[in-house]
Design brief:
mainly alpha; 161 residues
Length: 161
């Protein structure tokens, strides 16, 4: 039965509390088991993410190739930005922040305020090469010893331009 309370000219209807009778505290999964299952699922999702990177590299390569040959337009630029933006978000989500950093770099180099003719294609190419290296070597972050050469290469490329 719903309990009705009048307050300041309003009726407040309090529904019957039946939830407690439907919930038990006995049995169920332990926190350790929940964490174990969650880690297993996240590991599978991370593998799915990593398997999606080579096709993304191919798509970036295609769009960048079009721009490098002069056959690309705003659509190719938008594709580069979209892939960079995806990397920026997904890299951090799946514990690959260095991919997120590379994606952020691609975003910064291809956003729509930059005219297509003014794109820094060599620096975008460096980012793509770094992404390929990071993917092949499964480098998660800049503390990985294998990350040192790519971080140096990126710094040198930025300084040269």
């Amino acid at each position: 039965m719903t309990k009705i309370v009048e307050m300041d000219g309003y009726e407040i209807h309090h529904p019957v509390q039946k939830l407690q009778s439907k919930v038990t505290t006995k049995g169920g999964l332990s926190l350790a088991e929940i964490e174990k299952r969650m880690a297993k699922k996240m590991s599978a999702l991370t593998e799915d993410f990593l398997s999606s990177i080579p096709p993304m590299i191919d798509a970036i390569e295609k769009s960048l190739g079009q721009l490098e040959t002069g056959a690309g337009d705003e659509t190719a630029q938008a594709d580069l930005f979209r892939h960079g933006h995806d990397l920026k978000g997904l890299g951090g989500s799946f514990d690959y922040p260095i991919m997120g950093t590379i994606g952020a770099g691609i975003c910064g180099l291809t956003h729509k305020e930059i005219e297509t003719a003014s794109l820094n294609l060599p620096l975008i190419r460096v980012h793509l090469d770094l992404l390929s290296y990071v993917t092949a070597n499964r480098i998660k972050n800049d503390s990985d010893p294998k990350a040192e050469p790519i971080l140096s290469a990126l710094a040198a490329a930025k300084a040269a331009i």
